[in-house]
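This part of the workshop introduces the protein records we will be handling. A record pairs a protein's sequence with a compact description of its fold. Comparing a sequence with its tokens is the quickest way to learn the format. The record below serves as our worked example for the rest of this section:
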Amino acid sequence: MINAMSKLSIVALSRNPISKKLAFELKDQALQYGANLHTVGGEISNGAYFLAHWECPHDLEISQRETLRTIAARFNSDLCFLKDHPAQIKVLAMDMDSTLINIECIDEIADFTGKKSAVAQITEATMRGEIKDFKESLRRRVALLEGVAANSLEAVYRERLKPNPGAAELLAGANERGLYTLLVSGGFTFFTEKLRTQLGFQQAQANTLEILDGKLTGKVLGDIVDGAAKAAYLDQACTSLGCSKANAVAMGDGANDLIMMNGSGISVAYQAKPIVKEKADAAFDHVGLDAALMLF
């Protein structure tokens, strides 16, 4: 069923030139939904990625978008469904674990106790949205870290943590454009502060692990940063700049990022869980984080 509320801009992103066959198959599939895709301009490349753009006269149902994304994936391309008249982007807000970086830090810390599997199972269920209460999920996982040497955090940072492809380029581009950059995480301040300095975020918010006598106590200090808190930090940043979430790009991979992503000018799901991909404007599985810079 077609939702005729608004027009869409459909954008394909790829590391390689956009296949003409991809364009043909997308247009053919869209016609089955009663939507005639019109090509906008020619293919664009910034040297790292290629972009093709179509205008769609109607909004599309989630299932229709997912079908088009499946077609694009066969051509190693990602599809983005953007508002026809987007607001000026002034803020970049993003999650840390598995979005900005390649790991879930809590799972790697747990590896030092031999409890990685137990913690990872809770993490996965939470990110898929199967465990709804993020605060309780985090408390359960952190409790399993009791007794871990505090210096294991540094080992995780140095030996296992790597920014995901395009992270440095994304931050450099965002800062060059004068965006306010916010790293907001349900993870831990030990890592967010290092990444804030390393990559140039202007603000970082996360949870603080309690450490006594050089060991983790299995507790978190203060209020837990959950999905609602992430969204609140983004709202505060926008308010301080005199804008709204419509002026923000919000990036995440798990269910606890959805509140922050909902209502943002552009929401980007990076290597994300299915529940996040289907709700996001853009789903990146083939391009790096910095491809977001081509969307605004």
Observations:
- Confidence is low (pLDDT under 50) at residues 1-5.
- The domain at 1-85 is CATH 3.30.70.260 (Alpha-Beta Plaits).
- The radius of gyration is 20 Å.
